[in-house]
């Protein structure tokens, strides 16, 4: 991978990782589901006025929008708001890798391989260690919600794969137009459970500029730039080269949370993070590493 492409990849994972700190800042003012609705509103508009809808079935766009907008980020915002620390949230959600592979196996009838079982076991041990250290900043509910968000991300990945789009420009359009299906259910949930329309209107009117900048960062940097640049990298390089890069997301997430939010990094947390990340690394990279090792021998 050329150095400039590596810098793009690092920029993406840095945005995705440090994004959890920005979430926490915005959630001090915005209710979680309203925050998610705003994110996808500005991911859809004004881009949809200039980008034609991709040629995929509406049901596919709708499912992707529901899984990624409501099931993933609506739940992530709710969890980070009061149930789990941002640093651990950035780590736990990476279990989406196992859900993505699990859905693929379910649909293709492929059996779970030994290295995948070992990788999954390591990640589960890491999550159990986190569960044993729940406190006021990280609850069992928060851990469960982040695992569910990972499940939703894996489901969205599977739905997106069924769209059959490989062109980066079309993938960008896919993310833009799928965002339209995230907004209505998020607004409905917010209106019913977060204080009603009048209260939410008052919250928006009183939101400071910094919060609005956080919303736009979520919409444009995190969603549109992140996904579009990621699709571009996948179009330029083999998936085996690009796919391991998100393993750096928890490093940025936990590091930024420690620096800006004062989130502690005790030994148990680092060990748990190591178990999860080694499990993810084995799951993503083992076939390629095994092939290289065989060539050396």
Question: In brief, what are we looking at here?
Answer:
The chain has helices spanning 3-27, 32-44, 58-82, 86-92, 96-108, 114-131, 140-162, 168-193, 196-206, 209-236, 239-242, 249-260, 267-296. With 297 residues, the chain is mainly alpha-helical. The chain starts with a helix and ends with a helix.
Question: What does the model show?
Answer:
- The protein has 297 residues and is mainly alpha-helical.
- It has one domain (3-90, 138-268).
- Helix 5 (96-108) packs across helix 7.
- It is 79% helix and 0% strand.
- The chain has helices spanning 3-27, 32-44, 58-82, 86-92, 96-108, 114-131, 140-162, 168-193, 196-206, 209-236, 239-242, 249-260, 267-296.
């Amino acid at each position: 991978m050329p150095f400039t492409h590596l810098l793009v990849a690092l920029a993406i994972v840095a945005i995705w990782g440090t994004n959890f700190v920005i979430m926490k800042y915005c959630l001090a003012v915005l209710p979680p589901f309203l925050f998610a609705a705003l994110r996808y509103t500005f991911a859809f508009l004004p881009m949809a006025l200039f980008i034609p809808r991709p040629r995929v079935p509406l049901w596919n766009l709708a499912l992707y929008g529901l899984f990624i907008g409501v099931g993933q980020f609506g739940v992530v915002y709710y969890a980070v708001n009061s149930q789990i620390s941002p640093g651990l949230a950035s780590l736990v959600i990476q279990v989406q890798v196992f859900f993505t592979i699990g859905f693929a196996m379910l649909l293709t009838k492929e059996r779970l391989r030994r290295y995948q079982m070992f990788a999954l076991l390591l990640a589960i041990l890491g999550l159990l260690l986190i569960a044993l250290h729940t406190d006021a900043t990280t609850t069992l509910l928060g851990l469960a919600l982040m695992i569910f968000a990972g499940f939703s991300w894996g489901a969205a990945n599977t739905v997106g794969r069924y769209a059959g789009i490989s062109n980066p420009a079309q993938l960008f359009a896919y993310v833009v137009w799928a965002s339209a299906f995230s907004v209505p259910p998020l607004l409905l949930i917010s209106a019913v459970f977060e204080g009603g329309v009048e209260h939410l209107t008052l919250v928006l009117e009183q939101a400071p500029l910094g919060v609005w900048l956080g919303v736009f960062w979520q919409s444009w940097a995190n969603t549109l730039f992140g996904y579009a640049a990621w699709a571009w990298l996948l179009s330029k390089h083999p998936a085996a080269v690009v796919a391991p890069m998100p393993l750096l997301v928890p490093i940025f997430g936990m590091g930024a949370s420690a620096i800006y939010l004062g989130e502690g990094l005790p030994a148990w947390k680092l060990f748990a993070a190591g178990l999860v990340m080694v499990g993810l690394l084995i799951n993503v990279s083992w076939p390629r590493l095994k092939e290289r090792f065989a060539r050396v021998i």
